[in-house]
Design a protein that fits this description.
Elements lengths: L1 H18 L25 H5 L45 E2 L5 E2 L14 E2 L6 E2 L23 E5 L4 E7 L3 H4 L3 E3 L9 E6 L19 E6 L2 E14 L13 E8 L2 E12 L3
Parallel strand pairs: 6-7, 8-11
Antiparallel strand pairs: 1-2, 3-4, 5-6, 5-9, 7-8, 9-10, 10-12, 11-12
Length: 273
């Protein structure tokens, strides 16, 4: 029993001693570092320009424009000035130098704006607006002659001389040639079609025409002389050669023997006087 009391006393003494020990905390330690203490300067507008930013008004930054060498132009102004030859200058404005910068040069590609399509009324060229010619058209109304035909087509080289009747129909081609009703009757592009063979009136020999051969067409408006410019084989659904034109021309089409998917197309343009 006495031994137990001694052990208990010893345990209490050790506990009391431990309770008096001062604990060690992280704050009692110091750490050293070799990291750089350099920092970038402030990018705040107030710190950089020494004033507050004026929203909706002028600010100091508006006048912070980098200086350019004399005779140089800002590359942000690429536009009309790069394409204009200014009066009084012996070169093109804002030409590109070898170093890639803009400035006043002594010509080059930019001065090639002067072409045959511009007028030259002064020391520099002024481009003229392009001229757009509209297709012309004459209605066949009122063109019918006493026999009902609207004209007569003649090809001296092929000894062809046939009446032209309104409509690209078998009825028209049984009497001569048919006029494409979608085309002009006189001015512009006059479209005419005929049989290739096997009929009293046929124009299959137009495939033998050559550029420069003559075709004439006579209507109530007079006689017009055309000169062949094209002899071509086309698809039977190609109607592009019957489009309206600003010049006076005549377009002839006929089937191609043994090739139902093809057509012969001849175009002739009015011969100049």
């Amino acid at each position: 029993m006495k031994k137990m009391r001694n052990l208990l006393g010893l345990a209490l003494a050790v506990g009391a001693a431990l309770s008096l020990t001062i604990p060690a905390f992280a704050s009692d330690y110091s750490f050293a570092t070799t990291a750089s203490q350099d920092y970038y300067g402030s990018t705040s507008y107030e710190d950089v320009y020494g004033s507050q930013y004026n929203y909706g008004g002028r600010n100091a930054v508006d006048y912070d424009v980098p200086e350019l060498e004399y005779g140089r132009m800002s590359t942000t102004q690429a536009g009309i000035m790069e394409r204009t030859i200014l009066p009084g200058l012996q070169g093109a404005a804002a030409s590109v130098d070898e170093d890639g910068s803009y400035g006043i040069g002594d010509g080059g590609p930019l001065t090639e704006l002067i072409t045959d399509s511009v007028t030259k009324d002064g020391p520099w060229a002024i481009p003229t607006a392009p001229t757009i010619q509209q297709p012309v058209y004459t209605s066949v109304q009122g063109m019918a002659q006493a026999d009902g035909s609207i004209g007569t087509l003649s090809i001296p080289k092929l000894k062809i001389n046939m009446k032209v009747w309104e409509g690209e129909t078998n009825a028209s081609m049984a009497k001569g040639l048919g006029h494409y009703s979608s085309t002009s009757g006189w001015l512009g592009n006059v479209g005419v079609c005929g049989h290739n063979r096997g009929a009293r009136y046929n124009i299959g020999t137009i495939k033998d025409l050559k550029p420069g051969d003559i075709i004439t067409y006579t209507t109530i408006y007079g006689t017009r002389t055309y000169q062949v410019t094209m002899v071509k084989t086309i698809a039977n659904n190609d109607w592009s050669y019957l489009q309206g034109t600003a010049d006076n021309r005549i377009t002839l089409t006929t089937c191609l023997a043994n090739q139902p998917a093809k057509r012969i197309c001849v175009q002739a343009v009015e011969k100049s006087a």
